[in-house]
C-alpha cells in the first residue's frame, strides 16, 4: 500500500479541455512549419515535378516579384473590396430575415422552404446569368458573393435564434415582458454569439465565391490572376495567389474571432 501511495497521481485530461494560448500558438505554428517542410521535401527530392508543384522558394520569389511590380497590392485590394461589399450586403439582408424566421412560425412556413430550395441551386450555374443581369463590372461579383452567402446565412441565423433556451423566454414572460422586450432583451442577447459565429463561417464561404466570381469576366483580383497563371501554366503564380487567399481568409477569420470574444464576454463568463 505504501508503494501505491507513493506513486504520483496523473492529471486526467477531460474531453474538450482547453489548452493555454501559448500551447495553442505553439501547436499551430508547428503544424504550418511541418507542412512547409513536407512541401520542400516533395519538391527537392524530385518526388513531384516543379512544373506541377513549385518549391516554397520559387513561390516566395514569385510573391516578391508580384509585390514589387504592384500587381499583388492591386489585386488584393480589389478582392477585399468585393468581399466586403458582397458580404455586407448579404449580412444586412440575412440577419433580420433569419431572426424573423427563427421567431415566427408563419414567417418560417412562408420563407424557409423557398430559401432551402434556392440554396441547393449551384451558384456556379448562375454565373452566365449574373453577367446578363449585372454586366461584367463589380456588381456581378457582388451578386455572386451575395448568392453564395445570403441563403446560407438566413438558415444559420434562424437556427441560432431557435436555440435560445425556452426557460429564458418563460422567465421573461413571468416577469411581464412583452414580445418585443423578450426579443431584444433575451432572444437577441442569447443568440448573438451564435449569429456572429454563423457570419464568421459564411465569410469563409464568401472567399470561395469571390474566386468563382473573378474567374470569369474580370480584369483584376486574386481569382483573375489565378486564371492568368492557369492560361500560361505558371504554377508558381497559382500557388502564390492561392496561399494569399488562404492568408487573407485566416486573417479575417481571426479578426472576427477576436471581435466576438470582446463583444460577447458575458457568454464566455456564463460557461
Name of the CATH superfamily: MetI-like
Mean pLDDT: 89
Shape: globular
Number of β-strand runs: 0
Helical residues, percent? over 70%
Listing every helix as H and every strand as E from the N terminus to the C terminus, the arrangement reads HHHHHHHHHHHH
CATH topology: MetI-like fold
Number of helices: 12
Our estimate of the beta-strand percent is: under 5%
Q: Kindly, what is the distance between the CA atoms of the first and last residues, rounded to a whole number of angstroms?
A: 40 Å
Poorly predicted ranges = none
Tell me the domain tally: 1
Largest sheet: none
Corresponding CATH architecture: Orthogonal Bundle
CATH level 1 name: Mainly Alpha
Structural class: mainly alpha
If you compute it from the alpha carbons, what radius of gyration comes out, rounded to the nearest whole angstrom? 24 Å
- Indicate the multimeric state: single chain
Keywords: Cell membrane, Membrane, Transmembrane, Transmembrane helix, Transport
Organism: Cryobacterium luteum
Protein name: ABC transporter permease
Family: Belongs to the binding-protein-dependent transport system permease family.
Amino acid at each position: 500500500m505504501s508503494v501505491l501511495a507513493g506513486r504520483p497521481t496523473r492529471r486526467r485530461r477531460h474531453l474538450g479541455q482547453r489548452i493555454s494560448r501559448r500551447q495553442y500558438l505553439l501547436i499551430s505554428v508547428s503544424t504550418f512549419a511541418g507542412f512547409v517542410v513536407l512541401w520542400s521535401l516533395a519538391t527537392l527530392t524530385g518526388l513531384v515535378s516543379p512544373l506541377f508543384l513549385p518549391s516554397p522558394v520559387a513561390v516566395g520569389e514569385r510573391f516578391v516579384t508580384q509585390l514589387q511590380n504592384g500587381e499583388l497590392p492591386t489585386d488584393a485590394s480589389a478582392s477585399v473590396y468585393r468581399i466586403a461589399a458582397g458580404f455586407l450586403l448579404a449580412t444586412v439582408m440575412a440577419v433580420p430575415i433569419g431572426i424573423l424566421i427563427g421567431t415566427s412560425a408563419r414567417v418560417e412556413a412562408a420563407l424557409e422552404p423557398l430559401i432551402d430550395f434556392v440554396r441547393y441551386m449551384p451558384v456556379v450555374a448562375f454565373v452566365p446569368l449574373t453577367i446578363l443581369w449585372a454586366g461584367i463590372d463589380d456588381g456581378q461579383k457582388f451578386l455572386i458573393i451575395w448568392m453564395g452567402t445570403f441563403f446560407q446565412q438566413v438558415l444559420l441565423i434562424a437556427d441560432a435564434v431557435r436555440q435560445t433556451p425556452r426557460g429564458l423566454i418563460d422567465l421573461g414572460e413571468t416577469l411581464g415582458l412583452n414580445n418585443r422586450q423578450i426579443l431584444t432583451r433575451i432572444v437577441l442577447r442569447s443568440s448573438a454569439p451564435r449569429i456572429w459565429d454563423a457570419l464568421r463561417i459564411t465569410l469563409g464561404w464568401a472567399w470561395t465565391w469571390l474566386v468563382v466570381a473573378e474567374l470569369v469576366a474580370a480584369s483584376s483580383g486574386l481569382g483573375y490572376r489565378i486564371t492568368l497563371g492557369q492560361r500560361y501554366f505558371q504554377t508558381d503564380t497559382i500557388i502564390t495567389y492561392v496561399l494569399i487567399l488562404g492568408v487573407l481568409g485566416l486573417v479575417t477569420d481571426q479578426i472576427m474571432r477576436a471581435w466576438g470574444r470582446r463583444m460577447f464576454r458575458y457568454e464566455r463568463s456564463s460557461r
